[in-house]
Structures are given as C-alpha cells and as structure tokens.
C-alpha cells in the first residue's frame, strides 16, 4: 500500500511542478479538464495519498516499513 501511496504523491508532485513551470495541468489535460469526474477523482486520491504519506514520518522515526 505504501508504494501505491508514494506513486500517487509523486504523480501529484510532478503535476504541480508542470503547473508551476509550464502552466500545464497534466492530469486535467489527460482526463478532460480540471472539472471532469475522472480528474476530480485523481485529485482526491492524490490528496488522500498526501495525508497518508504523513504517516511515513512516524515510520521513519520508528525504523519500520510496511512496503
């Protein structure tokens, strides 16, 4: 599960980088615009993945991993 979450966080980071550097929302372009249902689901999953990734700090501190 952690690998899937990390993949979503990376997708989100790359998308934000493209928005910042080029003004291009890759997720929006690929899935029918920012308001499309599919894009909104992807944005929501990336957001939830970011929240889940916060738990990685506790795992780093304790030295455990569930990957």
From TrEMBL:
Entry keyword set: Membrane, Transmembrane, Transmembrane helix
Membrane-spanning intervals of the chain: 7-31, 37-58
Superkingdom, natural source: Bacteria
The keyword Membrane is assigned to this record: yes
InterPro entries reported for this sequence: DUF378
Name of the protein this chain belongs to: DUF378 domain-containing protein
Organism this protein belongs to: Butyricicoccus intestinisimiae
């Amino acid at each position: 599960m952690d690998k899937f979450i990390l993949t979503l966080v990376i997708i989100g980071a790359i998308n934000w980088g493209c928005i910042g550097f080029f003004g291009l929302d890759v997720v929006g372009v690929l899935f029918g615009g920012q308001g499309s249902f599919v894009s909104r689901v992807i944005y929501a999953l990336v957001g939830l993945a970011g929240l889940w990734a916060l738990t990685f700090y506790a795992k780093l501190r304790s030295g455990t991993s569930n990957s």
